[in-house]
């Protein structure tokens, strides 16, 4: 998405997006860092704590249920043969 729409980040530097817990890893985080985007996440043992770390727990507790709710309402979690 960021490669297709570079204006999403260039027009708004220093963004902190909410992301799915499955988005992680040094290559992924490196691409975000190149665009001055900070991803809130738990700090690894080998990393210094990032400035927003104390806030990542509460925000994830809010974002994940909202995501699950919309996924359910939109039927995105169901397989085609499952009844509503």
Quick tags:
84 residues; mainly alpha; 42% helix
Q: How would you sum up this structure, described in words?
A:
With 84 residues, this protein is an all-alpha fold. It has one domain. Helices cover 42% and strands 0% of the residues. The chain has helices at residues 7-10, 26-34, 53-74. The longest helix has 22 residues, at 53-74. The radius of gyration is 16 Å and the shape is globular. Residues 1-84 are annotated as: Disordered. Residues 19-47 have a biased composition (Basic and acidic residues).
Cα gyration radius (Å)? 16 Å
Strand count: 0
Sheet-strand content, in percent, reads: under 5%
Termini separation (Å)?
31 Å
**Biggest beta sheet summary:** none
Order of helices and strands: HHH
| Main structural class | mainly alpha
Uncertain stretches of 5 or more adjacent residues = none
User: Helix amount, in percent?
Assistant: 40-55%
- Structural domain tally: 1
Question: What's the tally of helices?
Answer: 3
Quick check: average pLDDT?
Answer: 72
Shape verdict: globular
């Amino acid at each position: 998405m960021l490669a297709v729409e570079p204006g999403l980040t260039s027009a708004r530097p220093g963004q902190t997006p909410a992301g799915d817990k499955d988005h992680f890893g040094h290559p992924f985080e490196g691409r975000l860092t190149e665009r001055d985007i900070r991803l809130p996440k738990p700090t690894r043992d080998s990393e210094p704590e990032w400035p927003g770390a104390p806030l990542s727990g509460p925000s994830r507790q809010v974002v994940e249920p909202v995501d699950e709710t919309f996924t359910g309402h939109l039927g995105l979690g169901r397989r085609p043969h499952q009844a509503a």
